[in-house]
Each structure stands twice: as structure tokens, then as C-alpha cells.
């Protein structure tokens, strides 16, 4: 990197210190610059228009506002209106909420797997399990990111929202069980991605309160930023002239009452529209704006601005398979606190003591009852303690835990297509889970490791001896986890188990891939004044959980864009 950039970074640091030293910064949730889109004027002009106030959009906007005027258009509401809704104990009720005001918009992929898409300021960081872990060095190298600036950007995020999680009895026992199962060494607490078993970070504080990417707006200059909520962008406006490259001019967005607004870029030629709408939203909006596969656009009568067949392609979701393990002993409320990073391409994580919705609790009770009725020990303590009685599961946390197995870097990939021309609706998505046999083998090996950890000596206090590994598999097979058909051998064959009970871990990515739709500077190929900064550009999911890197990328690219604005094209290493 050039001397000018580090000089620029120093100036940003000084101005940031001066700005916050004067106590002009604002604390969440009392942002004066956040308003409902119904309050927006009909026409607005800004240096940067960011579509999506999510995990990347919030840190990007906060950074750009240090030296430019920034508009953020978020289709969802504010996480601060109900501050306890997204806290640790409400993880599953929050994620499974299907009301119109929910933070998660549900969809089902064409593969028959239930999924969700964030719809709130702060994006996925408002609805996820909170684990914070950095990307592996290979990911950063492949993306061409500068190591020093990456570390600086991670630290900027971590100062505000990352914490060390508590390791209580259940989580500690399972971690030790993974070590017994051979996921070595024990790396203790670290944000870094290291083979073995490690305690990672969390965005939940000591009071189990969630901190999100929206909190990074505390870094913003309140006089240079405006955030509009329930602002649904319908399309990007382009200027197309003969012998000139297509150039983004602004966007059209609609407020909650259906009124249209026009947000336009200032006359400065360095002003830009930046898509940060995520792996579904960014390719969908490109297509609705006329950039995408021409045949698909013409099908919906969309004027083709640029034929770009790679938009919506290379969409990947990391397959997730789980074990639900009832416990004879009380368990703590915990979300993901540690991870086992195997060398064969599988990640093992877990949560305990969580609350389900009543319908899910009944499903668990019914499936477990069916399994126990097949054994001669059905009158054991487990049976008698009320696991069979759904009412015992409705108002209390589940006494037990869920162990997750995630496939790293799946080869199988899918695609996204428009379902209609309504930007509020989810597009049609196909992930092609386990299409590649290599992905299936990773799952099989990972589930075997998870089973070994459950039946380890370290974890013996938190499992019922009468429940065999086959019984645990059968429990999952009998739960309505997806819409996929079941094989008769699902509880006997781990290959069939993986295929039949596959779920999402909500780490889907791609659709606007680096090198295919955007260049190394995240500029859309063939278009001026348009970038994409979010997980849709990823060729793989960074680290064990992507949120840390998505937030880092927002900060990183914000600094890069400002440097380019004031010092010209930034230099590579």
C-alpha cells in the first residue's frame, strides 16, 4: 500500500478521535439520523447511496460518513424498537417469527430446505447465533485484501461489538468431548481461524444482550448520514449514452405507504451507488434494474441494460446437519461459544438450553416418545420426567442441546432466478445441496465426529445412556426440519441422513461473485459508479461464521473508497 493511503488513514483516525472527543457521536438506539422512509423528501441527493443497512452496509456507511454524505436505504425496521427481542434467550423465537414485522423473512429453497433472509437494520447480525470468528488467511489472500488493513478493520469492529463468551458446564463438556474425538489441539480463546478446537468471540455481552452491525453506526458522523427504514429499493437508475459506459445515477425506492422517492447521486463523478443487500438481495436488484441474464430479464419485460449471465450464478449454501441431545442434567442457556475446526472440511458448533416455539416443542416430544416406545426401557426416568408431555416443553427451555455440523467450502452450487418483479418478494433459489459427492463425505465424517463427542467420557453427564446414536439420528429424521423426502435407511446410513435432514446455517453466499460480476475493487464489471459490498461477492464462506468478515469488509472498503475519492486510485500491495 502507498504512503498516501497510510497518511489518509492517519487523517481519518485523527478526525474520528476529534469528532468523538467532542461527544458529537450518537449512541444506539438514539440515532437522530435514522427515520422512517415516509419522512423522506421526494428527491434526495447524496455522494453515496447504500442499498441495505445490514451486516456490511452499516460499517460501510459509518466509515464513508467520516468524509462524505451518505444515504442508507434499509427495507426493514429498527432492532432498537424492541431491544430484548433479539437477545440470547429469544434466538429461535426471533428467527422463526413469521409476522409482517419480523426481523427475518422466511423462504424455502427449491431444494425443499427452510431458510430465512434478514429484514432489519443490522441485517443478519440481528438474527444469527452470535458467533464471532475471523476468516482463514486463504480466504483473505484469494480476495486480494491487504493484511494490515484487514486487521485494522477487524479491530475497529471488535472494539464495539465482540466479547469473550462464558464457557459453562454443557459447552465445556462438549468442547472436551470434541478434543477426545480428535479435533486437536485445544486453542483456547481466539478470534483467529485455527485448526483444532477453540473458543471464539460472541456479539452477546455478559447480560446476554445482542450487539449488532447497527451498533457500528455509533462511529458515524450524524451530520453526514441519513438512514431510512422500510425503504424498499425498486431499481437502480442508469445513464446509458452511445459510446459511453453505463453509469449508475441513483435509485427509486418506495416507503411503507407506497409513495415513490428518487435518491440521486451528486454531480461529483466519484459518487457511487453501493449494493449491500446480501446474497439474495443484491443479484435480485441487479436483475430488476436490467443487469443480468438477458433471457430471464426479457421474460419479465425488464429492459436489458447489460447482459450479464453470471448474475445470480454460483450461489452456495453451506449444508448443516444437527443432533438434538436430551440431557438428564440441567443445562445452561448458550448459543455458539466454541467451534471444532477439522482438517477434512467440517465445523462442529453447538447451543444448549434454548427455547423453541410451542409447535416445535410438540414435534420434539412426539418424535422422542415414538423412539422410547420402541425400547424396553420406556419406563425409565427419561420417560417419566415428562419429555412425553408437550406441556413440559412449552414454557421452559429445552433441557438438552443441539450440535451442528457445517460443511466447509462446498463444491455444490446453485443459482438464483427472479420469481416476479416485486422486490419485496424473495427470488427463486436453488442450492443443489450435496450434488458433489465430496460435500457428502465431509458431512458424513463431521457427523461421525459429533457422535463421538456425544458419547465421550467428558460429555457423559449430559446424555441418557438409553439413547443410542441410532436413536439420536432417528429423532432428527422424524422432525419436520425440511420438506425433503426421507429414505427408510436415514437413521442407519449417514449418507442418507445427511441428504434427508439437511438444513441451512444461513451462511449462503455468491450470486455476484468476485471476478465474475465484480472486480477486485468490488466494482460491477462494465458499469460506472456501482459497487457491491456484501456476501454475494464471496466465492466461499469466510471462517466458521461469516459475520465478522462481512463487517470487516464494510469498514475495509469504506476506507478504500474514501482513499480513492480523495487521493485517486488506491495502490495494491
From TrEMBL:
InterPro entries: FAD/NAD-bd_sf (IPR036188), GMC_Oxidoreductase-Related (IPR051871), GMC_OxRdtase (IPR012132), GMC_OxRdtase_N (IPR000172), GMC_OxRtase_C (IPR007867)
Amino-acid positions noted as binding FAD in the UniProt annotation, renumbered to this chain: 74-75, 120, 233, 506-507, 535, 546-547
One Pfam family here: GMC_oxred_C
Residues annotated as transmembrane: none
Signal sequence range: 1-25
Cysteine-cysteine disulfides: 443-498
Annotated ranges, domain Glucose-methanol-choline oxidoreductase N-terminal: 278-292
Top-level lineage group: Eukaryota
Cofactor(s) this protein cannot do without: FAD
Keyword field: Disulfide bond, FAD, Flavoprotein, Signal
GO molecular function: flavin adenine dinucleotide binding; oxidoreductase activity, acting on CH-OH group of donors
Coiled-coil blocks: none
PROSITE patterns attached to this UniProt entry: GMC_OXRED_2
Similarity remark: Belongs to the GMC oxidoreductase family.
The protein's name: Protein HOTHEAD
Name of encoding gene: LOC107904624
Amino acid at each position: 500500500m502507498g504512503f498516501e493511503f497510510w497518511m489518509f488513514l492517519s487523517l481519518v483516525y485523527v478526525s474520528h478521535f476529534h469528532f468523538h472527543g467532542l461527544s458529537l457521536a450518537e449512541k444506539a438506539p438514539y440515532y437522530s439520523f435514522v427515520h422512517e422512509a415516509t419522512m423522506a423528501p421526494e428527491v434526495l441527493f447524496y455522494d453515496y447511496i447504500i442499498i441495505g443497512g445490514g451486516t456490511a452496509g452499516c460499517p460501510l456507511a459509518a466509515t464513508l460518513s467520516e468524509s462524505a454524505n451518505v444515504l442508507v436505504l434499509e427495507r426493514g425496521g429498527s432492532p432498537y424498537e424492541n431491544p430484548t427481542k433479539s437477545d440470547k434467550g429469544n434466538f429461535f423465537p426471533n428467527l422463526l417469527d413469521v409476522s409482517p414485522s419480523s426481523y427475518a423473512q422466511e423462504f424455502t429453497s427449491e431444494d425443499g430446505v427452510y431458510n430465512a433472509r434478514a429484514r432489519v437494520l443490522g441485517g443478519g447480525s440481528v438474527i444469527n447465533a452470535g458467533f464471532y470468528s475471523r476468516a482463514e488467511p486463504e480466504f483473505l489472500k484469494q480476495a486480494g485484501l491487504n493484511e494490515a488493513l484487514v486487521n485494522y478493520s477487524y479491530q475497529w469492529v471488535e472494539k464495539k461489538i465482540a466479547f469473550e463468551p462464558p464457557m459453562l458446564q454443557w459447552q465445556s463438556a462438549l468442547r472436551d468431548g470434541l478434543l477426545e474425538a480428535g479435533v486437536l489441539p485445544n486453542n483456547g480463546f481466539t478470534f483467529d481461524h485455527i485448526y483444532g478446537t477453540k473458543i471464539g468471540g460472541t456479539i452477546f455481552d455478559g447480560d446476554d444482550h445482542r450487539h449488532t452491525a447497527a451498533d457500528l453506526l455509533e462511529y458515524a458522523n450524524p451530520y453526514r448520514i441519513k438512514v431510512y427504514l422500510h425503504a424498499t429499493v425498486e431499481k437502480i437508475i442508469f445513464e446509458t449514452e452511445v459510446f459511453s459506459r453505463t453509469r449508475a445515477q441513483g435509485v427509486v425506492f418506495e416507503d411503507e405507504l407506497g409513495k415513490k422517492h428518487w435518491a440521486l447521486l451528486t454531480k461529483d463523478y466519484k459518487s457511487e451507488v453501493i449494493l449491500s443487500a446480501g446474497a439474495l438481495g443484491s443479484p435480485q436488484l441487479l436483475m430488476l434494474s436490467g443487469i443480468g441474464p438477458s433471457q430471464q430479464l426479457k421474460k419479465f419485460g425488464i429492459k436489458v441494460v447489460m447482459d450479464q449471465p453470471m448474475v445470480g450464478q454460483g450461489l452456495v449454501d453451506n449444508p448443516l446437519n444437527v443432533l438434538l441431545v436430551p440431557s438428564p442434567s440441567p443445562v445452561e442457556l448458550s448459543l455458539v461459544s466454541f467451534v471444532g475446526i477439522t482438517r477434512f472440511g467440517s465445523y462442529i458448533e453447538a447451543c444448549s438450553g434454548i427455547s423453541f416455539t410451542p409447535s416445535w416443542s410438540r414435534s420434539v416430544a412426539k418424535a422422542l416418545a415414538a423412539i422410547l416406545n420402541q425400547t424396553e426401557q420406556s419406563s425409565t426416568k427419561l420417560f417419566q420426567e415428562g419429555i412425553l408431555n408437550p406441556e413440559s416443553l412449552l414454557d421452559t427451555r429445552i433441557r438438552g442441546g443441539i450440535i451442528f455440523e457445517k460443511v466447509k467450502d462446498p463444491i455444490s452450487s446453485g443459482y438464483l432466478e427472479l420469481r416476479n418483479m416485486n422486490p419485496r418478494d424473495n427470488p427463486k433459489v436453488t442450492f443443489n445441496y450435496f450434488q458433489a459427492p465430496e460435500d457428502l463425505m465431509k458431512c458424513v465424517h463431521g457427523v461421525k465426529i459429533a457422535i463421538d463427542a456425544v458419547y465421550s467420557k467428558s460429555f457423559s453427564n449430559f446424555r441418557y445412556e438409553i439413547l443410542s446414536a441410532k436413536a439420536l439420528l432417528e429423532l432428527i429424521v422424524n422432525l419436520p426440519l425440511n420438506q425433503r423426502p426421507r429414505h427408510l435407511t436415514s437413521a442407519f446410513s449417514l449418507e442418507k441422513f445427511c441428504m434427508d435432514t439437511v438444513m441451512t446455517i444461513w451462511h449462503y453466499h455468491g450470486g455476484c461473485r468476485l471476478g465474475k460480476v465484480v472486480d477486485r475493487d468490488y466494482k460491477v464489471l462494465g458499469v460506472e459508479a456501482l459497487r457491491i459490498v456484501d456476501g454475494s461477492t464471496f466465492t466461499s464462506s469466510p471462517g466458521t461464521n461469516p459475520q465478522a468478515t462481512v463487517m470487516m469488509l464494510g469498514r475495509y472498503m469504506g476506507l478504500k473508497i474514501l482513499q480513492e475519492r480523495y487521493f485517486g486510485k488506491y495502490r495494491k500491495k
